[in-house]
Design goal:
By secondary structure, the protein is an all-alpha fold. 71% of the residues lie in helices and 0% in strands.
């Protein structure tokens, strides 16, 4: 019995994966000594959402009522996002982490390799979820926080723990979760005045 040729969808997915690996290898092969250590530090700072928790604490303590609302909504978005990305999505994705050093070894930029699967990026998702949640109460912080989330997302590729596709999908999921959390917060405030 002969095997059926791959469907168009499978061929497209295979090509996208090949492109994803090629872009990862291009990043790995590019010498960037000036940004290696700062990106490594930023990537580590975002572990377990510490970066966003820190920003949330500052907003809560110094931002008045809007700052408290922004902190609570942003951190709620991160919590919901983590429950969605780090459990069912990573389990369903089952994509192995990149093989570091396949093109060139750059130890200065590497962070500890997580034991979870690679797809999607939880760091990327958390950053964009937090930015959307905070922006609901403090719109002026939306752009800088999304910029920070973008740099954190890139740092995960740069440090060798994610493929670009992992961070793109993670960022999109985080945006969706953050926007849904912000919308829910708005609805709750309308139904529960003084909240």
């Amino acid at each position: 019995m002969t095997e059926a040729p791959p469907t168009l969808a499978r061929r497209v997915l295979r090509e996208l994966e090949e492109l994803d690996v090629a872009v990862y290898q291009a990043v790995e092969a590019t010498p960037t000594p000036l940004i290696d250590v700062p990106l490594k530090r930023l990537s580590n700072l975002a572990n377990h959402a510490k970066l966003y928790a820190g920003i949330g604490v500052v907003l809560f303590a110094l931002g008045g009522p809007k700052g408290r609302r922004a902190a609570v909504t942003g951190l709620a978005a991160v919590g919901l996002n983590s429950a969605i990305v780090n459990i069912p999505m990573k389990y369903a994705g089952q994509r192995p982490r990149p093989e570091r050093g396949a093109v060139r070894v750059v130890e200065a930029r590497h962070v500890h390799m997580p034991t979870s699967t690679s797809f999607p990026s939880g760091h990327s998702a958390s950053g964009f979820a937090f930015a959307a949640g905070v922006a609901e109460a403090l719109p002026a912080l939306g752009v800088p926080l999304r910029g920070l989330a973008t740099v954190v997302a890139y740092s995960r590729v740069h440090s060798g723990v994610h493929y670009p596709g992992d961070v793109i999908v993670g960022s999109l999921v985080g945006m969706a979760v953050g926007e849904a959390t912000a919308r829910t917060a708005r609805l709750l405030r309308r139904r529960l005045p003084g909240c």
